[in-house]
Design goal:
Helix 3 packs parallel to helix 6. The chain is of the alpha+beta class. It is built from 6 helices and 10 strands. The chain has a single domain, classed as Glutaredoxin (3-Layer(aba) Sandwich). GO terms for molecular function: antioxidant activity; oxidoreductase activity. This is Thioredoxin family protein.
């Protein structure tokens, strides 16, 4: 398992479009996932300890962000041939178990992860209403273990600011997680 940090935010970089199958049986596009005040694209998976440490917080924060007009979507891009826990069937199970309030999509070709420049799980891309990038940071201080309950909610606060102002914070702390498991590597 290789741990990586995400690059710094390239403000106003446009959100690539996608059309991916969800665990709910639907095919989802970027625009169908976006809310009136923005879009949060999360690259996550099932097996990564960094993601497991924040799943409940992802559910809490995305539910609250939906109330602020931020649409949220999670994309799983790991190669399930290498990590069976990341299979589509297991994605369905995890989404149901944790009651994901957002579409959970499979990027089987890994083209969407490459288009976004995703490097790890979790990797967060926060966009404004014009789908310009405003946040590329961490959820909170969690790593492989969940941060204390009173930890600052970096992602939530940043996306709430995007919902209000259309701009993300200038100072952002990178997300850290397991490297995306690319096919053939």
């Amino acid at each position: 398992m290789v741990s990586l940090e995400t690059p710094v935010c390239e403000f106003d970089l446009p959100a690539p479009d996608f059309s991916l199958p969800g665990v709910d049986g639907r095919t989802w596009s970027r625009d169908e996932c976006a809310g009136p005040n923005g879009l949060l694209v999360m690259f996550i998976c099932n097996h990564c300890p960094y993601v497991k440490a924040v799943r409940e917080r992802l559910v809490r924060d995305t539910r609250e962000l939906a109330g602020l007009g931020i649409g949220c979507v999670a994309i799983q891009s790991n190669d399930p041939a290498e990590y069976a826990e990341d299979s589509f069937e297991n994605m369905k199970h995890v989404a149901e178990t944790f009651d994901y309030p957002f579409p959970y999509l499979l990027d089987e070709t890994q083209e969407v992860a490459r288009a976004y420049g995703a490097v790890c799980t979790p990797d967060f891309f926060g966009y404004n209403a014009q789908l310009g990038l405003q946040y590329r940071g961490r959820l909170d201080a969690s790593r492989k273990e969940t941060a204390p309950a009173d930890a600052r909610r970096d992602l939530f606060e940043a996306m709430a600011q995007v919902a209000r102002t259309g701009r993300g914070p200038e100072q952002q702390i990178p997300s850290m997680g397991c490297s995306i498991k690319w096919r053939g590597e």
